[in-house]
Amino acid sequence: MAEDKFILYDIPSKDGASCWSLNPWKTRLALNFKGIDYKTQWVEYPDIEPLLKSFGLPPQPDEPRPWTLPTARFPQDGSYVMESRAIADEIEKRYPAPEWPSLRLDDPAVERAKAHLRPTAGALMPVILPQVPRVILSEYSAEYFWRTRAEAFGMPLVEWAAKEGGEDGEKAWERSRAGFAEVAEALRETEGPFYLGETVSYADFIFVGFLHFLKRAVGEKDFERLKEWPEIIALYEACGKWLERDSH
């Protein structure tokens, strides 16, 4: 008998189980927005690859980590889909408008929001990444994270972070300012608070997923730096009700 609920496979935090990572948040926000009944299965970092292989999922080509979360299991036929955009496409197909609210995946705003991640999230990775194993992950996953990122960067993660972002991270924060200003300018093109004005879309979940990840990693005090751009805070707060469900 097929499982009667959508299953979201996500990475737990050290507090037991709560969503924190950017890409799983994209999927979770979409599910919460659409009102789809789902449950979460938590998977620690070292267990992701063997679990997804057991589902028969092929590796993602040209990716440093070929098996990743989020992954989803659809109740209609028990099929598995890996990667947040692929999951969003399948969600929209299986839970279409008008019965379910649309994610508006074809709107140009979606690609625009993706582009906005590069100068913001990309710039702040030296600040964010060391905080993931320090303050978010369990000891089991943290060891994996430190090791695999050191392998990827060719040096310990803290050394890479200091080199790229400055000893105190200020170089990274300064580098991100132009990107956040660009996002704020885009949001000012409508009356807001969303990318499409009063209409919610997947574009919002792409950027708000990053904002929530950033807040979890750096803490409230550093997150308050974004108050320089009220439009960004307004977008984040407007999506607050879809951020509430983060632990099941």
UniProtKB/TrEMBL annotation:
Record InterPro entries: Glutathione-S-Trfase_C_sf (IPR036282), Glutathione_S-Trfase_N (IPR004045), GST_UstS-like_C (IPR054416), Thioredoxin-like_sf (IPR036249)
Domain spans labelled Glutathione S-transferase UstS-like C-terminal: 121-229
Any single Pfam family the record assigns to this protein: GST_C_7
Residue ranges occupied by any GST N-terminal domain in the UniProt entry: 20-93
CDD domains: GST_C_family (cd00299), GST_N_etherase_LigE (cd03038)
Superkingdom of this protein's organism: Eukaryota
Protein name per its UniProtKB record: GST N-terminal domain-containing protein
